[in-house]
C-alpha cells in the first residue's frame, strides 16, 4: 500500500459513522499524519448539516485512541459553490499544515456517488484508493435520526447503534434531547412535506426565486425568516416569482413586502448595480432552485426605516463589518451570495475573509 507523509480525508461526516472510522484507521496506517477536512463548515444547522464543524470534530476526536490523537489534525472548509475555488482552499489549508517542504501528500479516495466527484480535482496529490467500508451512508442515517415515521425509540436507537461508533452514538443520543434537535427535526418535517407536495409532478420541478441585496451607508438589509425552512435564520429579502410578475417585478414586490422598503422605478434603476444568478444544484434543500439577485446601492448616509413583514419575522440594517461573524446564522447559500456579490460589484469595504 502507498505510504505518504500526510493523508487527507475529506468529508462532511454528518454524522461520523463506522465507515468513516474504518477509512480514518486505514489512513493512519499509511501516513505519519492525517488531516481531516470538515466540509460545509460555518453553515447554519439544517437537516442536511445538523452538526456544526466543532461538534463533528469532537465526534471524530472521541473515537481516536489517545496514542494517535496527535497525528490527526482538522481543517474546517466552508462551501463555495465553486469547485475550483473550493479545491484551492482545501489545498491551501492542508499544505499549511504539512511541516516539511515537498513532503508527500496522499488523498484518501473513496468514491461512492456523484457527490464524490471532487476527489478527481487534486492532481498535485497522490491518490490512495481504499475500498468502501461497509454499506453505511450518512443520508439514511440522518433520515433515521429525524424519525419522521415516528418509529419506536428503541428501534431507532438500535439502527443507529449498528452504524455508529459508541462515542458518536452517545453524543447523538444526548443531542436528541435538546431544543436544537427539535428545531432541526421540525425543519426536516417541513421539507418532507414540501417535497411531498411536488411528488406527483411529471418532472422534477425547478423553482425560480428572487432576492435583493441592498446596501446603504455601510450596512446591508437583511431579514430574519419567519417560517421553515430556515426559521429564525438571516437571509436576503426575497421569494418565489409569481405567475403574473416579471422577475424584476417579483424582486421589487418581495423587497417591499418583507422589509417595507419601497423604491420608485427611478430610484430602483438609479440604485441598481447589476443582477447575478445563483443556480448551483445543491444550493437549496427545497429542490432545484435558481435565484436572481438584484444588487442595489442606495445613496446617502441615512438608513431608510424598515420593518419585517409577510414571510419575514424581522428586517434590519446590519453593519458590513459584522457580516463575517454572522456567517453561521445565514440561510442556505445567502452568505455565499453576499460574499460573491461584494466581490463582483464592490458594494462596500468588507473585511477580508479569514
From TrEMBL:
Pfam families: CTP_transf_like, NUDIX
Domain Nudix hydrolase: 193-345
UniProt keyword list: Hydrolase, Nucleotidyltransferase, Transferase
Gene Ontology MF annotations: nucleotidyltransferase activity
Tagged with keyword Calcium: no
UniProt xrefs under NCBIfam families: cyt_tran_rel
Protein name in UniProt: Bifunctional nicotinamide-nucleotide adenylyltransferase/Nudix hydroxylase
The species this protein was found in: Comamonas nitrativorans
Lineage: Bacteria, Pseudomonadati, Pseudomonadota, Betaproteobacteria, Burkholderiales
